Amino acid sequence: xxxxxxxxxxxxxxxxxxxxxxxxxxxAHRLARQGRAFRLFESSARPGGNVRTERHDDGWLIETGPNxxxxxPAVAALLEELNLSPLTASPAAKNRYILRRGCPVPAPASPxxxxxxxxxxxxxxxxxxxxxxxxxxxxxxxxCLADFIASHFGREVVDYGLRPFVSGVxxxxxxxxxARHSFPTLWEAExxxxxxxxxxxxxxxxxxxxxxxxxxxxxxSFTDGLEALPHALAAHLPAGSVxxxxxxxxxxxxxxxxxxxxxxxGGLAPQTEFFSAVILALPAAALAALPIGxxxxxxxxxxxxxxxxxxxxxxxxxxxxxxxHPLDGFGMLVPPAENRVPLGxxxxxxxxxxxxxxxxxxxxxxxxxxxxxxxxxLEDDPLLTRVRNDLAELLGxxxxxxxxxxxxxxxxxxxxxxxxxxxxxxxxRTETAHPGLLVGGHVRDGISVPNCLAAGEKLAARxxx
Length: 465
Ligand SMILES: Cc1cc2nc3c(=O)[nH]c(=O)nc-3n(C[C@H](O)[C@H](O)[C@H](O)COP(=O)(O)OP(=O)(O)OC[C@H]3O[C@@H](n4cnc5c(N)ncnc54)[C@H](O)[C@@H]3O)c2cc1C
What we know:
Blueprint (H helix, E strand, L loop, with lengths): L2 E4 L8 E4 L3 H12 L4 E4 L11 E3 L5 E3 L5 E2 L2 H10 L4 E2 L6 E6 L2 E4 L4 H6 L5 H11 L12 H9 L1 H16 L8 H4 L1 H10 L2 H14 L9 E3 L6 H8 L6 E2 L2 E7 L4 E7 L7 E5 L1 E4 L3 H6 L21 E9 L9 E5 L10 E3 L1 H4 L8 E9 L11 H16 L7 E7 L11 H13 L3 E3 L9 H16 L1
The structure holds flavin-adenine dinucleotide.
């Protein structure tokens, strides 16, 4: 039997948040700042979801999920609230290499640099001028990202600019990702300006007018790694507001909402609590499995069809003199056309200090993704052998790594593929059918951590009405 453990009638009932990743924590943080009572239920034993850092005593610091974030103005404001100092990426990490014919070539960061870059042929460069002449365009149907970018810059930019970039962000397939849903700012830029280059210039000008730096946001982490962010968010929440190892049995819609939950370790008698609203900040599979209704209905069941390809993140430590490449960059992205094992390689110890012991360097090799999922699931030894061969040829890495740590994400990042509006519509319809239910996070609002922080803010604002 479940026991009723809280029904309020004088002050408003608390708001429930299910999921303690970045989205749920950001929602909780905002509700707490507004003085609104809430309860957060997280199924695991720790806050942060995908954001996880491991420190080893011998001086290695490993990010098993995200490695760095963009310091947008909204993120900077949140860090101030949390009293957290960002560690911005070293200037030495300025280059972003892209592999072309087996050589890492710095990616151009501006249109003038593009015109001088050896990464692209003369005919690819000529296409740039075509984009400048493009007129505003209101497409009536969605199109895949590869075709969208090809219509502005041609196929070579798709193969050696877009595809490696999409591997780095979504571990995705540019031929399947929806232009409208995966990069909504580009979609909007075309609608308003036609030319994507003119749109970028207009955005830089608007930023300057607001007193913001006109370039892209800087990249940051923290001295102790990215997990400092969820830890700080959780540490600022009121005592007793978060339940870890919580297993949600079901949600019953109504006014109030009823939630039955227990501890996954069996350490607590099953509980029933009542809430004025329920925020769901969960991955698609968890949303799909959640019973919402008196008869165990699963209105979000179809979200289980969202494609989340697997990714393997292989952290490798070497002595500095084992690597010939200067590692003077953020990392190296590998276009699928180059037919190599890695999706990309991050130069962690160049990006941030304190990631490797003195005299050593740290690299993270990502494999798998939408195009070659089987490479995420290879056994450790064959994967390491194949990665080692590529690193030897591409970065001049010799010998065995002195430190290895591998994380496999069986379902890494949702693909906002063509037709994704089917899932977004289902979420919207479910919210409408169940007043007080609010759904957000990486399934709906964008996949980056800054997107998820913004999603949490938005969910809290909606819950507060
Ligand atoms: C390998 C990898 C690399 C990435 N790299 C970057 C990067 O460099 N930069 C960047 O900005 N983003 C990156 N991302 C994306 C980013 O990490 C995620 O999109 C973001 O962290 C998602 O946050 P979230 O809160 O929406 O979801 P999640 O992190 O998935 O959190 C959901 C939480 O809900 C909990 N939960 C699940 N089911 C239940 C349930 N039934 N009841 C209660 N709780 C439940 C989970 O335990 C989890 O804590 C990366 C992601 C991966 C996987």
